[in-house]
Write a structure and sequence with these properties.
Blueprint: E1 8-15, E2 22-26, E3 30-35, E4 49-55, E5 58-64, H1 65-68, E6 83-89, E7 92-98, E8 100-108, E9 113-114, E10 125-131, E11 134-139, H2 141-148, H3 150-153, H4 162-168, E12 172-176, H5 180-192, E13 196-200, H6 203-213, E14 222-225, H7 234-243, E15 251-256, H8 261-270, E16 274-277, H9 281-297, H10 299-305
Helix pairs in contact: 4-9, 6-7
Length: about 300
């Protein structure tokens, strides 16, 4: 299969209060690392949020990540030695309080073991890998943010015309995402509008399904894929689909928690028809409606042939 995306991506490794396990977060989601500063206490906030701090003129909620991951919260008397990781994900910036930042390393996503499908809904881990014989767990920051800020993320106010809904209901959509919460949010919005869809947990699973069904009568008109995934990432998946005549005509949307222009530019380079930041239900459904007109008239293939 032609290779396009660089499977080695940077991850920041860190430790949490009272936990021996190493954790990691992709560097593309990280905007900075700063020493702990005492937050301003917020009224009626989530138990995982200890307050807010101002960093680079922006007010950010501070999340006690140790508490969120099932450990003991960091006592007030011990917070002075903590570190804040500024993360940009799902159209919001937050400060993740961690015990210690270890280092940034290059991680081969093909070596990451995805979370088993049988894993529970409450896990905040995407998968695991090893570094210097140590187990490293990859943080599912999307799941953490959705747990804490559900009203900010689960935007239900989608406005579509009856004509747009009728067109969308003609689609057969494949959704590809390794995040439990992302699959749940996608399922809810697609179910709400009566769309036909199937879920895949990884790019490898999606590609195997698409190549297997390409000549077996099952047709998908559209694929909506995450970017950062263990194994085959979203960039490589889209590139592979465009390289295969059987799947080239599908309308392809990259749907990512990364909030950077770099991810948008890369999406265009691999041949995605559209790229969106998670999770804006209105923007997603408008993009799908726009794509439905292309996918159902067969013009997507013509665009790639130009």
């Amino acid at each position: 299969m032609p290779q396009f995306s660089e499977q080695s991506q940077g991850v920041l490794m860190f430790r949490l209060h009272t936990k021996a396990t190493l954790f990691a977060l992709g560097t593309m989601k990280i905007k900075g690392i700063v020493p702990y500063q005492a937050p301003t206490v917020l009224p009626a906030c989530h138990a995982y949020v200890i307050g807010s701090v101002t960093i680079r003129d922006a007010s950010l909620p501070v999340i006690d990540l140790s508490l969120a991951m099932g450990g003991r919260g960091v006592p007030l008397s011990e917070r002075g030695t903590q570190t804040l990781i500024v993360a940009d994900c799902m159209r919001m910036q937050v400060a993740l309080m961690v015990d210690k930042v270890e280092h940034i390393v290059s991680c081969d996503w093909k070596s990451v073991t995805p979370l088993p499908k049988a894993a529970g809904q409450d896990t905040f881990v995407l998968g695991s890998t090893h570094y210097n014989d140590q187990l490293v767990q990859l943080l599912d920051v999307e799941r953490v943010l959705t747990e804490i800020f559900p009203a900010d993320i689960e935007d239900a106010g989608v406005q579509l015309s009856q004509e747009e809904i009728a067109l969308l209901q003609k689609l057969n959509v494949l959704v590809v995402d390794d995040s439990i919460i992302a699959r749940r949010l996608m399922s809810e919005i697609l179910d709400r509008f009566g769309l036909k869809f199937q879920l895949c947990h990884s790019g490898d699973e999606a590609l195997a399904l698409l190549l297997d069904t390409g000549g077996a009568g099952v047709k998908f008109d559209m694929v909506i894929s995450d970017i950062e995934m263990p194994g085959l990432d979203g960039y490589e998946l889209i590139f592979a689909l465009n390289d295969n005549p059987r799947t080239r005509a599908m309308y392809k949307i990259l749907h990512t928690s990364l909030s950077s222009e770099m991810s948008q530019d890369r999406a265009r380079q691999v041949g995605a028809n559209d790229a969106l930041s998670k999770f804006n239900a209105q923007a997603l459904m408008v993009a799908m409606s726009r794509g439905a007109e292309v996918a159902l008239t067969g013009t997507a293939d013509e665009c790639h042939d130009r």
